[in-house]
């Protein structure tokens, strides 16, 4: 059954009261920590600049979603190292 406007508003208020830590623990699946070589970091920064994206996490999330939409063949061709 669909929620009423009152129920939705109550849930929104409850979410707004959560601390940032509570909100993240509810949303996050896991954390990644990676080491980047200088060349990789430069390419990451250049890609962010070209896309007009300020947060590394935003670019990485968009790349993950884009890769997920690719066919197996497209993905294999894209990640093949030349």
Helix content: 55-70%
What is the element string, with H for helices and E for strands?
HHHHH
Unreliable stretches: none
Secondary structural class: mainly alpha
Q: Strand count, sense and closure of the main sheet?
A: none
How does the overall form come out from the CA principal axes? Answer: elongated
Q: What is the overall pLDDT average?
A: 89
Percentage of residues in strands = under 5%
How far is the N terminus from the C terminus?
53 Å
Instruction: State the total count of DSSP E strands.
Output: 0
Tally of helical runs: 5
Alpha-carbon Rg, integer: 19 Å
The gist of it:
By secondary structure, the protein is mostly helical.
What's the layout of helices and strands?
Elements: H1 5-17, H2 20-27, H3 38-51, H4 56-69, H5 72-79
Describe it for me?
The protein is an all-alpha fold and 82 residues long. The protein has a domain at 55-82. Helix content is 70%, strand content 0%. The protein contains five helices and no strands. The mean pLDDT is 89.
Give descriptors for this structure.
elongated; mainly alpha; 5 helices; single chain; 82 residues
């Amino acid at each position: 059954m669909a929620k009423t406007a009152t129920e939705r508003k109550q849930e929104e208020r409850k979410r707004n009261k959560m601390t940032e830590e509570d909100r993240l623990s509810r949303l996050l699946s896991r954390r990644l920590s990676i080491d980047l070589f200088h060349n990789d970091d430069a390419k990451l920064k250049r890609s962010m600049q070209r896309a007009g994206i300020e947060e590394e996490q935003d670019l990485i999330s968009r790349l993950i979603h884009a890769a997920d939409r690719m066919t197996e063949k497209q993905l294999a061709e894209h990640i093949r190292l030349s």
